[in-house]
Design a protein that fits this description.
Elements: H1 2-20, E1 25-28, E2 31-37, H2 42-59, E3 63-70, H3 76-91, E4 95-99, H4 103-112, E5 121-122, H5 125-135, H6 145-148
Parallel strand pairs: 2-3, 3-4, 4-5
Antiparallel strand pairs: 1-2
Length: about 150
């Protein structure tokens, strides 16, 4: 009985950890982000895709940023999953941007012959967020020192 209970707890914890591996956060009204950290496999990318699409539908987001800064390596299968995510997000009516493209990832993608030609990519999430704001007609400005303290 103790062993079965322990196995159920471990199984539940594993499922919860797995679900946390695809957090979709709302950065701004109409702008979502999916930070991806670690290695991607088919099961995880499917969960990420489902979670992102559900959040796009629930929030009516216009822009989704998939940040791959934390992805250590990219192979053809991973790249194909990203392209599928972009295409599915577009079918839901939102634009999908890829951020966090590092030099080694870019070189690998070119070497693999994987094309992201019709996908907006940026090296940082800040760059992608700037594009998202622009697409939504929003702007960001720096406060003058006198404005920071309500003067």
């Amino acid at each position: 009985m103790f062993q079965k209970s322990r196995e159920e707890i471990i199984g539940r914890q594993q499922q919860e950890m797995f679900e946390l591996s695809a957090p979709v956060v709302e950065l701004w009204q109409g702008i979502l982000a999916l930070p991806v950290i670690g290695t991607l496999d088919s099961k995880r990318t499917q969960l990420m895709l489902e979670t992102l699409l559900e959040r796009v539908a629930a929030t009516q987001a216009e822009v989704a940023i998939v940040d791959i800064t934390g992805v250590p390596a990219m192979d053809t299968l991973t790249a194909q999953h990203l392209i599928n995510t972009v295409n599915a997000t577009r079918l839901m009516g939102a634009e999908c941007l890829i951020s966090g493209v590092r030099p080694q990832i870019a070189q690998t993608m070119v070497g693999l012959g994987v094309s992201f030609a019709d996908v907006v990519t940026k090296s940082t999430i800040a760059g992608a967020l700037a594009i998202a704001f622009k697409r939504r007609g929003l702007g960001v400005r720096s406060l003058q020192p006198s404005e920071e303290h309500g003067a």
